[in-house]
Fold this sequence. Notes:
Layout: E1 3-8, H1 14-24, E2 30-32, H2 46-59, E3 65-67, H3 79-96, E4 103-106, E5 109-110, H4 116-130, E6 138-142, E7 150-151, H5 155-165, E8 171-176, H6 177-183, H7 191-201, E9 207-211, E10 214-215, E11 226-227, H8 236-243, E12 252-255, H9 261-275
Parallel strand pairs: 1-2, 1-12, 2-3, 3-4, 4-6, 6-8, 8-9, 9-12
Antiparallel strand pairs: 5-7, 10-11
Helix pairs in contact: 1-2, 4-5
Amino acid sequence: MIYIGCHLSVTDGYAAMGKTMSAFGGNTFAWFTRNPRGGKTKPVIPEDVEALREHLHKEGFGPLVAHGSYTMNLCSAKEETRANGLDMLTQDLARMELLPGNFYNFHPGAHTGQGTETGIRQIAEALRGVMHADMQTTVLLETMAGKGSEIGGSFEELREIIDRVDMGDRLGVCFDTCHTWDAGYDIVGDPDGVLTRFDEVIGLSRLKAVHFNDSKNERGSHKDRHEKLGEGCIGMEAMKRLALHPALQGRPFILETPNDDEGYIREIHTVLEWQA
Ligand code: FE
Ligand code: FE
Ligand code: ZN
């Protein structure tokens, strides 16, 4: 089986997200550690975090997948942006330790003209500076669509970051189905081949979470526009094959599809029916 859930708003606190997801029928979720565009965070209330931890335990939730801010770019050509990103990463990872054993995923970054090699080096240096051996959080690099100067549009680029950071299994990958498809990997025609390739380049043991999205665009478009399950170019049959794929079992699957609550509830139940 897999765990299934969607992105939730942290506005009403941590415990509220657990309750909402249980009401939706899911057993994992994602949230933005701060406003995805801005930088602000609210102070954490220890009782609220504790209530969520109890709920997760009682309801048998899978690992949660917090998402770092889109504005965080660890390899921008602008030094101020890089420093700002490092600040956000440091604070986010400190906060994640209040919820030990979960995942923190982020977009590796966009090199904004500096070149892929420099970008990879700067991302790895930032992570090395912030991560430590006894942290309880697993950091996940997201597979990207390869839009503009984005790093992470190929498995090889992610592997290079992982090698340079050299933090053992504290660093893994979040496999975004829309992004991977948009980057050019044929998860429709040859899912086995793509996952075998992932295993050869990175290792499936590092594939810790899935962002489960259809795509508005054709394979290799490098666009990164998510679509509802079954309404995009990946299609329902291929999405179902991925959710049931032996290589992906046990992972949290997070919906980032363009939906309201009703839509998420429907998609969560679609996935649960596949598994039944
Ligand atoms: Fe993302
Ligand atoms: Fe994603
Ligand atoms: Zn995306």
